[in-house]
Amino acid sequence: MLVSLSVSICVCRASSIQEDSAMENIVTEKKVEESHRQDSADLLIFIMLLTLTILTIWLFKHRRFRFLHETGLAMIYGVLVGVVLRYGIHVPRDISNVTMSCHVNASPATLLVNVSGKFYEYTLKGEIGANEVNDVQDNEMLRKVTFDPEVFFNILLPPIIFHAGYSLKRRHFFRNMGSILAYAFLGTVVSCFVIGLLMYGCVLLMKQVGQLGGDFFFTDCLFFGAIVSATDPVTVLAIFNELQVDVDLYALLFGESVLNDAVAVILSSSIVAYQPQGDNSHTFEVMALLKSFGMFLGVFSGSFALGVATGVVTFTKLRDFPLLETALFFLMSWSTFLLAEACGFTGVVAVLFCGITQAHYTFNNLSPDSQDRTKQLFELLNFLAENFIFSYMGLALFTFQSHIFNPMFIVGAFVAVFLGRAANIYPLSLLLNLGRRNKITSNFQHMMMFAGLRGAMTFALSIRDTATYARQMMFTTTLLVVFFTVWICGGGTTQMLSCQHIRYRNLLFQMLLCPDFMTPIVGVDSDQDNPVSSERRSTKQESAWLFRIWYNFDHNYLKPILTHSVTFISVCVSNNPLPSHQNECQLKDDDSDLILTDGDINLTYGDITVSTDASGSHTSGGPAFAGAATSDDLDRELTYGDHELVMRGTRLVLPMDDSEPPFTDPHHRMRM
Amino acid sequence: MLVSLSVSICVCRASSIQEDSAMENIVTEKKVEESHRQDSADLLIFIMLLTLTILTIWLFKHRRFRFLHETGLAMIYGVLVGVVLRYGIHVPRDISNVTMSCHVNASPATLLVNVSGKFYEYTLKGEIGANEVNDVQDNEMLRKVTFDPEVFFNILLPPIIFHAGYSLKRRHFFRNMGSILAYAFLGTVVSCFVIGLLMYGCVLLMKQVGQLGGDFFFTDCLFFGAIVSATDPVTVLAIFNELQVDVDLYALLFGESVLNDAVAVILSSSIVAYQPQGDNSHTFEVMALLKSFGMFLGVFSGSFALGVATGVVTFTKLRDFPLLETALFFLMSWSTFLLAEACGFTGVVAVLFCGITQAHYTFNNLSPDSQDRTKQLFELLNFLAENFIFSYMGLALFTFQSHIFNPMFIVGAFVAVFLGRAANIYPLSLLLNLGRRNKITSNFQHMMMFAGLRGAMTFALSIRDTATYARQMMFTTTLLVVFFTVWICGGGTTQMLSCQHIRYRNLLFQMLLCPDFMTPIVGVDSDQDNPVSSERRSTKQESAWLFRIWYNFDHNYLKPILTHSVTFISVCVSNNPLPSHQNECQLKDDDSDLILTDGDINLTYGDITVSTDASGSHTSGGPAFAGAATSDDLDRELTYGDHELVMRGTRLVLPMDDSEPPFTDPHHRMRM
After folding, report:
1. DSSP assignment of A350-370, as one string?
2. pLDDT value at B655 more than 70
3. Would I find Electron transport among this entry's keywords (chains A, B) (predicted)?
4. Which of A506, B161, B273, B639 is deepest in the core (most CB within 10 A)?
């Protein structure tokens, strides 16, 4: 088995060797220090990029400049810094290269090198293309700026996906569950295969023309289809929230793009796992296909089960210590990811369903203080991770070493992505409309077609493996697809909405016309205007029987068991001296104000927002208000602020007013 | 220059090599996947440890079990898991070893290995002792659980140190500034040299007896002195806060232990940098000493200046977007660290002074919502990092591969640490008392002597380099010193306080006797009872003239320039319809409620706390209260809660009551 192979060891940054061991130590320390300093400087570049992005976002929000979303902005800054790094900075070539030969039989994970009695340990970083070997020495700096792809998958993606799951608008999500699942599962698979087939055609054509410089198999095409089928919730979410777009459209798009990611991850790993046993590994084989399909189902259900399980398990009763609660919540979310990865499932998918479950059940168990803290923590993590990924994308356009820009492939990909999205949305909508009571109208369909941005997940999947020619070309193309969709489609969302005559309510407009609308926006779900009973009835009418059964089971059994909220609510209601509209809303329907809803997101993203901040004071930010505010508006706003205060006040003062004995419910007393 | 040396390449996890490149890819992918899965499982162990710690802390707090602090607990859990990992789990030896020889001249930072035309990149992980080479294969699992030492220094330590700087009780800190600086600088240097000399004596003795198995130079002894001279703020802070110990003692101990860390870091790196030029590198040389001393001064002042500069620069005006503000604040703190490291200064020290400066100036610029968020974020990061380090310490006792337990050295070290602390506290206190108006009494001195725990910084410094025999023995000994001090001294703090008759007020006791005391504890600094004018007078009396000049300059020029608080306060005061006691306190002295004070820390650490939570409701947690609460107490508490509400309410409702035009101050209006 010990086949002797030629090994050339190329030494970068050769050091002179002293006889004295102490001096040698110092040299090693100096080397480590130098490398550490470089690392710090590299990381500093990204931090500065993020800081710059934040400052500009603020400026944009301040000036109500809505064409460019923060993620698009982060990408632009990334591109600029990438250009500077690539062309502006020249690293002096102080590196002497030593190449030697010896015999080794494989590429182990760990190498031990014995230099004059001292052993040095080396860890495998990855494979390098033959053409890059010289680049290794040339572009030390550029290579340093390039992160380990796994960082995206294991560190940056989880908070984003978790936050997405966490902030799913659950009422509308569940009401449109059937359609969302159809788009996310069936639609993504359809899109994946359509894109895969189209790209295969394109690749065959390229081979004919002689434009192809390496292998490109059908599985590669399918893989490309899988990764570009994952639509991104980020940008659309932000814009729709600002504009208060129709809730059903919002639920459809957001739900689809969140679940989409999960499907795309598992689909792509299933495609990679497709391995026929014969000699020619790129032929069709039924067994291998079935195995891949089985893997898809197994990994998905495993990740789903794990996520839901840990989400439910986060059963905190540490109500008196918000810090401990928040820490525990955070750690449980993270351990979901790690557990799934350790079990061979997909961490990202598990985290998604963990987030959904936590928002549905266990979030209600937290004390109000912890709820604020937890929400804000995940919001911050999501914000940082997201902007980091997008600015890194911009940077990668210039700093990534092995881009392959193939115009034909790129054009083909754009066409395929467009057609793939169309093959997802239009036929499925047609089918779904057969069963739906409130149809998905054609302008909704066009909007969904248009809003299929590609983002963080697509990028993370494509950068994960850039070893082969095919993967490198895919990476370059994917980057361009992301850029195009985020800048063009993301920037044009507002225009597209107006063009499609989709109703969206501007908050300012709404405040002037119908002040009653204010109530649902703050803290309470924006679709809470109609009384709870009619709401429940409409849910019954619209949903499928399977979902209705689940809904009833969940509402009657699961929620009471998994949350302490029932006893809590009954206490609140019985002690409530002020039967105000808001109080009823808030107390009777614990769902609506205990999860992240529109109002909460508005707090940070909207530029015309009316929201409640943590200290209970009433905030109305945004320069639009400054411009258009008449004294009437201000008055109304302030009246509302007062109202809001009273509403919160009742919870506090009420035991005194009623002069009742201290509560028997222990965690309620803790809050007082 | 190309000296041929024998290189043995030891292959762990050899893989069979297929001819087919696709199959080879799969094998590599499988290998990477396997390794990734293992990593996830390892990280999961730590997450589970942290979760367990949090749950037990909660239980302890709930049951008012005060002997063991959470850090001590984390260590115990760490030790238990370490034992299980070491003795409980046997990894099957499925690893075939292949050893080959070839020629290489040095240990470069990057290795390129060419296996059958494919290049694999390897990065230098570190040197391995000759006796560990076999362990590498045996204890893959144990080695995997062992983190890169730099993780502690670059990821876990910064938030802890930043939080410490952030939560320095500034009024008392500045009042005792002279003494704190004396203890931290002079004291640490004295302690370092006393311990170094004693250990050198011990080492010489060991050499005589034949107990020494390797080199141990005088610089090693001094290095040991430097790292064990860093006292830890964590445990003492928590206990003192719970017990509301005398504020001066608290300020002295906390201030010392915070600055201590900075001194110890730079001192140890200066000692490492001490390198005489002659052949015998361990002799005394004046030039090298001067160089070391110059380096100490240079690095310290550089780090100090950088920290202060970035702290001041964080000049946020993004008041309307709490998320952006918090993100910016966080990024600026982090970039301070990175910038310092990239410049060759000490990041930890820069972060410390950045924290102090931010708390003093720029924190006041944040909107109230952002202040809460930022505080809570750093609190959480600090909590997680701290408990992680301490549980890792416990784990390292068993999983670290090259412990050297030398009883004689350990006994010597304990004696030296004790004497070193004594040589720091007693002579310095004697000298300081000559100049101080309120003397440091002898029971305070005993308490300071006793409370010199060693913690995270000592550990991080000692694990940073464990290559040589001397360093390994130091690491083992340091670990034991930390364990002893945290468990014995930390656990005995309450007893020691009673024994030394140092006054500390139990909150419950205090509430029953003097309800007026309630005010200062909640949100406001606990030493705010006396009016501001007398406070300022007393500061003038007690401080040295140099400090007085600085204080006046700071108060009259720096603060007004660097914070917007002046205009903000004037607006508040002019519009304030309710001249209640709390309002005046809060508005006139913006220092006291805008930084982390006792009250805030009580919110999370105390087990009998009365505090204000983020939503403005009034919380009184803790089971002690549940046990002893009479209806009188509850009444008083609720009255207070009402009061508190009104106080917050005034800020909200006041423009309506006054029927004034909208505020002219832009950022104030935003908050409304």
Report:
1. HHHHHHHHHHHTGGGGS-HHH
2. no
3. no
4. B161
- Give yes or no for a contact between B122 and A123, defined as CB atoms under 8 angstroms apart: yes
For A630, residues 6+ apart whose C-beta sits below 8 A from its C-beta are none
Residue A17 with chain B: CB contacts under 8 Å: 3, 105-106
Instruction: Confirm if A180 and A430 have CB atoms less than 8 A apart.
Output: no
* Two tokens, residue B109: 């930072």
Query: What residues of B are in contact with residue A3 (Cβ under 8 Å)?
Result: 17
- 3-state SS class at B588: helix
Interchain CB distance below 8 Å, B368 and A615: yes
**Model confidence at A132, in pLDDT bands (50, 70, 90)?**
low
What residues in A contact B672, CB-CB < 8 Å?
617-620, 638, 641
Predicted confidence (pLDDT) per residue in A21-71, tens digit? 555 555 666 766 777 787 788 888 888 888 888 888 888 777 766 667 778
Residues of B in contact with A1 (CB under 8 A): 16
Nearest to B11 among A108, A615, A649 (CB): A108
Convert B124-188 into a string of H (helix), E (strand) and C (coil): EEEEECHHHHHHHHHCHHHHHHCCCHHHHHHHHHHHHHHHHHHCCCHHHHHHCHHHHHHHHHHHH
A54–B328 CB contact, under 8 Å: yes
Q: Which residues 7-26 on chain B approach chain A with CB closer than 8 angstroms?
A: 7-17, 20, 22-23, 25-26
Measured between alpha carbons, how far is B13 from A268 in angstroms, rounded to an integer? 27
First to last CA, chain A: 73
Is the CB of A109 less than 8 angstroms away from the CB of B35?
yes
Taking only the tens place, the pLDDT of each residue in B308-318 is: 888 777 665 66
* Stated length of chain B: 672
The tokens describing B474, both together, are 């130091």
Say if residues A274 and A198 touch (Cβ distance below 8 Å). no
Q: What tokens does B213 get?
A: 């198995």
- B92 band by pLDDT with thresholds 50, 70 and 90: low
- DSSP 3-state of A611: strand
CA-based nearest distance B236→chain A, Å: 19
ipTM: 0.71
CA separation for the pair A564, B63 (Å, rounded):
22
Structure tokens given for B597: 């004070």
Q: What is the DSSP string of A570-608?
A: HHHHHT-----HHHHHHHH-HHHHHS--HHHHHHHH-SS
Put simply, the answer to whether B51 touches A11 (Cβ < 8 Å) is no
Cβ neighbours, 10 Å, residue B251: 23
Residue-level pLDDT at A443: 85
Structure token pair of residue B335 = 């970039």
Nearest chain A residue (CA) to B616: A615
Among A residues 447-466, those touching chain B with beta carbons less than 8 Å apart: none
| Gap between the Cα atoms of A505 and A515, Å rounded | 13
pLDDT digits (tens, 9 = 90+) for A538-571: 444 445 566 677 777 777 777 777 665 433 333 3
Which residue stretches of B451-506 are H helix?
Answer: 456-463, 469-484, 491, 493-499
User: Considering only residues 602 to 631 of chain B, which have any Cβ-Cβ distance to chain A shorter than 8 Å?
Assistant: 603-604, 613-622, 626
- Report the C-alpha gap between B569 and B578 in whole angstroms: 15
Give the closest residue to A217 by CA, choosing from A228, A205, A229, A203.
A203
Q: What pLDDT does residue A131 have? A: 54
Return d(Cα B216, Cα B570) in angstroms, integer. 64
* Closest residue on chain B to A656 (Cα): B638
- Count other C-beta atoms under 10 Å from residue A610's C-beta: 25
- Indicate yes or no: CB of B651 within 8 angstroms of CB of A617: yes
